Structures are given as structure tokens and as C-alpha cells.
């Protein structure tokens, strides 16, 4: 633990009793991107900066990203490989540094070009993973993604030779954003963190995305911490909570109430960092001002919340996650190959995932108490562990109903007042 | 066997469902797949990030009753323009209706000009993101010939 970089910054904030809050911010114009980073830095909260990349750069269609830059077409993120390096250096100039580290967020199953572009401008923090940036993210075969991520981790890890401490965050705690029971989210997050570690990364964060039930979420983060303590020795690691990653409330009061719950989850569970969502989430890319308002709201809720982590073991989520992680690790000494075998045999199986390398037998539902549960475990080694309630095939209305469960609860149009949850 | 999630029923002309060229979101595709099946359609779901060439090859091969392009990542207008321009280069596909919907821009729903441009480029209909958009789409489906429901 070298004391430099993104991970060390977050550690220091946590030791000082503060939650680090971070936006999902990314816009294609360099001027607006710089303004966004400055506003994030100067907000009344402990923050780190984000450059979220556009979808063309994510899928490796750099020609389209460059063309959009030339034609001035606004994109859904910052095209780091489409702008000149000097342009991106100017965006970061005097902003990125030990007191305000900046992370690049993307969503690529083949991120070498992204890692080269970010290291070339002096950055060293990013996120993703061989599974979580493949299965829910397009058409790249899982086998290729594992190879690309191995190479990309090694590329980033090479920065350690020059005294830096590059940082990677798993996206595995999010997967499709919604309707994936927490046991599987925790397992994939832990496995991806181990994958990063085996390929040379020593500063890691593990993600968990807020789901449908606060108690279940708290159990999941506790399970995640217990498993990381076991499987990531001699590593600087922390937990990052994502504010809800599914259909977001449409009302302002609903959006803030849900974000506030995420901040409470983060602090109470002993997590170190939170990625926020804004009031614009349900509709469009947020403005800088909307991001700042979200950061400040989350920080304010965090400041009045006490740390009260649950016991890690002894819960349903812990039992499921442990069984999945242990089963995958037993498949092969090479973790990349183990992950491939796990998906090929259905040992890991993400519900409702369309990717051809996912078995596609598992299914989930939200129970009467709002907890995310399995209706089918497919071939996952969860027999006798998961509480499975078989269900008939879902209709489009039922699917939309399940996807809108959280939105509905927080919007409460019918009551016309903020949800007290 | 098709490599894509497909309604079993080899006889009927299918509906092709495709995510935008750069769009990796899939819940929209899963939802549309179910909705189409409930309206008696056989579906071939091409999944997210569908390149123009793949969509054209599948369309020429399957002669679909309808092509549904869905995009929510904010690039839908530009990706959708590219896709339909390439599709409409193929006279064999002239008679195949193509529609698009979702969250097509990064600043909220597309304006009238953009909708008109999408139609001029070859879409038979453009549906917005609202429940009204989905309702209009359901009416379009009701007008399509259905496969026999058992
Ligand atoms: C879940 C989610 C994800 C998941 C997706 C997992 C997956 N495999 O699907 C993850 C986390 C991976 C993800 C990634 C990204 N996301 Co996203 N995501 C969402 C979120 C939260 C929910 C989407 C969802 O699941 N909807 C469920 C389905 C059923 O509903 P729907 O998509 O809204 O579709 C409805 C209508 O649009 C309509 N519809 C859709 N298509 C069609 C087609 C026709 C013909 C018709 C009639 C109707 C129709 O019918 C559906 C039912 O009502 C939304 C925000 C929100 N809505 O709250 C953002 C959102 C869609 N994402 C967004 C973005 C930008 C991204 C990223 C680029 C990252 C980023 N910059 O933030 C990447 C995408 C990378 C890429 N290459 O495209 C933006 C898009 C912005 C815009 N349009 O202006 C949104 C709106 C968030 C935001 N406000 O910034 N995302």
C-alpha cells in the first residue's frame, strides 16, 4: 500500500470518517468535461472525478467517435480516444492530482485502447471486468473479453514500475443493473477483483449496486467485505456502492429519496465510496448542475448516517456468494479459464442476459417483501442453499412491473408526497 | 439452429428486433421480444450493438414481416439514421417495414425535425419513449398478420 493514487485517497477519506461521492459524468465537449470536473472538485462534499466515455469508444468504433468530434455531434460521454491527447491533458490540467483523483469509466470488453489513452494523459484509475463488461455489454465473446482484460490489467499494472498505484474497480456488482439476486452480484464482484489481482493490480475496489431491499443490500455488502478479506490478502481494497442501476424514479422527490437510501446503505455498511445518480436519470444525460446537486444530497445524507455494518456471514446472500465463488475457483487454477468454464456449464448464469455465452436458464423475481430471489437457479451450484420458488414464464407487463418496482415505490404519484421508506 | 434467441415456429415470417449500433442495453430488447410474442409474432432477437451488415444479412436471409430497432443510449438518432440508410440501399427489402423507438437523443425526446428526418431516411414509424409511444406501437402490431396462436 503505497499511499498514492485513487485507492489511497479513498482510504484516507474513510479513515477521516468521510464517504467519497462520485458522479457518472461524461460529456463529449472538452470545455464541458473540464467544467464538470471542476464543479465536482469544488462541490461541498468529498469527491473524486469521473470521465465517463461515450458508447462508440466503448465498442471500439473509434471512427464514429472521431467523426462525431469533427462534426460537433454531442455524444453520451467523453471520447477519450477521439480527442487529441493534448486536448485531454488540457481538460485535466491543474485538476487531476493527489487531492482530486480522476477515474475513467467505460464499459468495454476490449479496453486496451482506452487504457492506453488514459495512461497517456497521466491517469491510472478505471473500472470494469472480464465478465461484467462483456455479458451485459454487447457482442464480444466471453473468451475474447477474458483475454482482452488480462492484457489490459497487465498494461495498467505496468505503471507500478514507475511508482504509481493503478486502481481498478469491478463492475461485477452491477451486471444487468437490475433483477440479479445479490448472491451472484457479490460472487462476480469478488471473482473479478481476484482476476485483477492475479494480473498485477494491487489497488482494487469492489462494486455493489443497490437493489430492491435495503436489508438484503446491507447483507450483500457485509458478505462482499467478508469474502474480500478472505480472497484479497495483501491488497488495498474498498467497497463502492452504486446508487440504483435500474429504472430510476421519474419524480424529483423519488429520485432524491432513492439516492439518499443509497448513501445510507454506503455509510451504514462501512463502504468507502458511492456513485450517485441524478434527477435526470430516467430521461437523459444529466447536466453538471444536476450532478452537483446529487453529490451534495448524497454527502448530506451520508454525514448524518452512522456506520453500523452487519455481521458478514450467516445470511442467505453470503451462503450463495460463497458457494458460487468456491465452485468457480475449483474449476481451474487459471481464473480466466475457470470463468469461461463456469459460464459454459451454467455454474454462473445471469438471469435475463441475452449474451450467447450465458447459459440463460436462471430466472429471478421480487418477493412480497421486496427481496430479490431466484425462481430458477438453472445449473448453478445453489441447490439446498438458495430458496427457489418456481414461476411460470413472465409476460411483458410483468417484466416491466418487476423492472419498475423500485421506481413505483419511490415515485408514489398517487400519494403526492415524498416516499418515507 | 439460430444463434439468436428465437421464437420456435419455423413457418412464419419473423419480426427482427435489433439494438442500435453502439447500444448495449438489453432490457428494452427483452421487453419488446415478449411484447411481440404476445401479439402473435415470431421473434428473432439480434441482441445489442447490431452492426448494419448483420442486420442486412439477417433481413435478406429471413425476409422479416417487420424490423424493430430499439435504442436507449442516446445515440439512437445517429445510429438509427446509419442503419436505415444502409437497409434502404437494398431494393429487395423495400417492402419490409422498419420502425424505431426508445430514448433516441441525449437531451430527451427527439424534436419534430429529427422525427421527420428519420422517416425521410426510411423508417415507417418513429415511437417515442412514453407509454403513448408503446401504445401506438401496440396498435401497429395489431395491424400485422399474426401467426396462429395455440
Ligand atoms: C439498466 C441501465 C443500464 C445497464 C444496462 C444493462 C442491460 N444489459 O440492459 C448498464 C449499467 C449496463 C447501462 C449502461 C449504459 N448506460 Co444505461 N441505463 C440503464 C437504466 C438505469 C435503465 C434501463 C432499463 O433497463 N430499462 C428497462 C426497459 C424495459 O425500459 P427502457 O430501456 O426505458 O425502454 C422502454 C422505452 O424506451 C420503450 N422502448 C425502447 N425501445 C423501443 C423501441 C420501440 C419500437 C418502441 C415502440 C418502444 C421502445 O419501451 C420500453 C418499455 O417502456 C437507464 C435509465 C432509466 N431508464 O432509469 C439508463 C440509461 C438508458 N443509460 C444511459 C447510458 C448513457 C448508458 C451508458 C452509455 C453509460 C453512461 N454514460 O451512463 C452505458 C451504455 C453503453 C453502450 N454501449 O450503450 C442513459 C441514456 C441517455 C440518453 N438516452 O440520453 C440512461 C437514460 C441513463 C442516463 N440518464 O444517463 N445502463
TrEMBL record, chain A:
<protein>
    <submittedName>
        <fullName>Methylaspartate mutase</fullName>
    </submittedName>
</protein>
<dbReference type="InterPro" id="IPR006396">
    <property type="entry name" value="Glu_mut_E"/>
</dbReference>
<keyword id="KW-0170">Cobalt</keyword>
<dbReference type="Pfam" id="PF06368">
    <property type="entry name" value="Met_asp_mut_E"/>
</dbReference>
<keyword id="KW-0846">Cobalamin</keyword>
<keyword id="KW-0413">Isomerase</keyword>
<dbReference type="InterPro" id="IPR016176">
    <property type="entry name" value="Cbl-dep_enz_cat"/>
</dbReference>
From TrEMBL, chain B:
<feature type="domain" description="B12-binding">
    <location>
        <begin position="12"/>
        <end position="150"/>
    </location>
</feature>
<protein>
    <submittedName>
        <fullName>Cobalamin-dependent protein</fullName>
    </submittedName>
</protein>
<dbReference type="Pfam" id="PF02310">
    <property type="entry name" value="B12-binding"/>
</dbReference>
<dbReference type="InterPro" id="IPR006158">
    <property type="entry name" value="Cobalamin-bd"/>
</dbReference>
<dbReference type="InterPro" id="IPR036724">
    <property type="entry name" value="Cobalamin-bd_sf"/>
</dbReference>
